[in-house]
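DATA SHEET
Item: assembly model
Revision: 1
Owner: S.N.
Input lines:
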Amino acid sequence: MGAMEATTQARGPQKLTGKGQATRARILEHAAELMYANGVHATNNEQLRRAAGISGSQLNHYFPTKESLVLAVVEWQAERVLAFHRSERFTGFDSLDSLREWAHFYVAYERSCREGCSLGSLAGEIVKADLDVRADLAHAFEQWRDVFRDGLRRMQQLGRISDAADPTRLAHLLLSAFQGGMLLSQVARDITPLEDALRAAIDHVETFAISPAAAP
Amino acid sequence: MGAMEATTQARGPQKLTGKGQATRARILEHAAELMYANGVHATNNEQLRRAAGISGSQLNHYFPTKESLVLAVVEWQAERVLAFHRSERFTGFDSLDSLREWAHFYVAYERSCREGCSLGSLAGEIVKADLDVRADLAHAFEQWRDVFRDGLRRMQQLGRISDAADPTRLAHLLLSAFQGGMLLSQVARDITPLEDALRAAIDHVETFAISPAAAP
């Protein structure tokens, strides 16, 4: 891509026409897929142009620098991960069953072992790079943690787990076990580390469970 | 560095003289430091030559390709991490106190928040790269997990934790919480995610503790 320009120029799709927004979204979708499959550094302009079916000048128009593209992909993946975790399927993580359902999904997900977490693997690859992306990543992980924390607080309100549980600490355990387990499973090409870590983390949440009979 | 050559050529210091081994070790030490501080991709020949005080032809002699250098750095960091975890300090992780001491060390370690785990951050950066390094990383993480697993088994033999504990699963929880917590802390530039994840993971091990009076 061209020389470094102010990244703000390319950050938002706000000023684009409907057709422009669609083209930008198509580029992003393919960029996210290539970076998830092969890594940020192995993803180059030519692959992206071919995958998205666009010209070099189009690519340059929407994403004048690789930095602007990487930033947009981080936002794209963060939105997808958060939307998935906030979906009906997990009912706001207000029960142990929803946590087990979540673990089960990722343990069964065929790309966990090869490509890891779509956001975590991106973070691992670029957090040390000289990109203005750390704050965006930090914000995304905070929101993700808050999905778990809010669920754990709700479980306390519903009398499902004890007030002795620390929702923030347990949320950090769940998200860390997930990120670390994904990395280990990806390296080992074996789902066991992730499966074990999530099961043990959720078992720990369960040690705070209040039996239905004992609940107020 | 030069064109790709068979990596086996540069993998071992076996055929080097004493002086050659010392030079190779000095290059490796500086390469590991640069990659830990700035990342693999941001580390280039010129920085490395300056840091290690060597010529380009010397660097080429010991590490003809970047791949050979990255492989050697992975081995170097793996050896250091394993030696640290096997040191007297942690007494083979045969007690809850040794686990707490370990967590305390990394929570207090000033580089946890900036550079993350020396081996995990390397893995996160290169696991998707087209390098012949995954098997080496997998082996290192397995050995690391086994340090914890063996410690947990010893705790069971000593009657410190119950036979209901699954040492492999708990070892995966500890290592995943560590790797994930390191990534989250690095992204947030805040030690809390790591601190919380390790504390909760060790709390979970403690739920299997047998009080001294109850032990056989």
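QC remark: The radius of gyration of chain A is 20 Å.
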